[in-house]
Specification:
Distance between the termini: 74 Å
Strand order of the largest sheet: 2-1-3
Shape: flat
Radius of gyration: 39 Å
Largest sheet: 3 strands, antiparallel
Order of helices and strands: HHHHEEHE
Length: about 150
Amino acid sequence: MDELKQSVQLAVHEQKDPLLIYKFEAFELFKAMIDEVNKDVISFLFKGELPQETQNTIQEARERKQEKLNIQKDEIPNLDERSAQNRAAGNTQQQQHVVETIVRDRPKIGRNDQVTIKQVITGENKTLKYKQAEHLLAKGDWVLVED
């Protein structure tokens, strides 16, 4: 592309539009690059070989799959045995963390929910959005009135 840029600058002396020449030559270079890439890809694909599986190997794979599915119920360890094994190996495995559920005294207030607040000193009531009342409640002069 740098060579193309240099050669296009000479087109000014020929009184031709260098931008048009640059676009045309760049497109020709792009087409040549695409042709080269296509040739390389096709050459690579023709040189590759697909593995061929015989009927015997396919049948063996099916039989192995069936053997895995035919495990008897008594071969699977029950839950009591598993829990005993887990307790025995408890030192090496991490114990599961118990997740506690948060229980709220009252429902959560959304930022755009209308709330009524009351001023502690004068007893004045205001109804406004919670996001506007937050800073008043934080100061401590106002309290939230439950409906």
